[in-house]
UniProtKB/TrEMBL annotation:
Protein name: F-box domain-containing protein
InterPro entries: EID1-like (IPR040267), F-box-like_dom_sf (IPR036047)
Taxonomy, superkingdom: Eukaryota
Species for this entry: Lupinus angustifolius
SUPFAM superfamilies to which the protein is assigned, alphabetical: F-box domain
Amino acid sequence: MSETVFEILNDDIIFTIFAKLDDDPRHCARVACVSTRFFSLIRDFCWKTKSFPSLFSVLLSDDSPSGWFTLHKLSVCCPGLRHSGVLPTTITTTAAAAESQGERCSKNRKICFGYWKSHLATGNWNLSREQGSKLLARQFRDDCLYICDWPGCVHFEEKRKYNLFRGVFKNFKQTRVWRTINDGVGTERERSKIDLGCAFCHCTQIWDLHSAFCLRRGFGFHDDGEPVVRAYVCENGHVSGAWTDVPMYS
């Protein structure tokens, strides 16, 4: 097999090309996913020359390409209505079957195909700790949660408008949120654990931050009992959720 152009070029020349990328972490994330060689160059050199937020420095310090894959997905991927907790698993399973048959599925609501699963996000891509702090209850404010700036990816569903967000905890296993959901025992811990895969990594279970009392209490509920804000986190600290307009009470 003949060598490609990049296989012929030495590392210094490739690094010079990479250095011309805009200061957008999505560009470096995409390049790092191309090959092991590109990943090593981006990890060892390029991110140090860019003005990335401290969060990206944590992700890029990973010794495996998985950190780059996660960064790429967090930057460009909306978790969808299912992973944001808007649609129960039973509804989305039925929706998938109906979609494969070209039919419309409805169970107390209309489902917009293409929105219930992960897809390319719209809206802002950058992650903000300020927004994450507004999401957590007071006792968890020291935990570093970065989520995309509001409004995130907006979805209009039959009942109301959902603003989907995604994000990640910095050093999740050292946070108070992790200790809260991990130290729970019996029904308390099982109530907040859900057998649903993470939208951004290979974790097969997530925890409901609302059920674990990790979210700020002032968000409230709609008249039908649906929470105004919901959020879920996997073992690796990746967060997906949705918020709606706060109901107006007379």
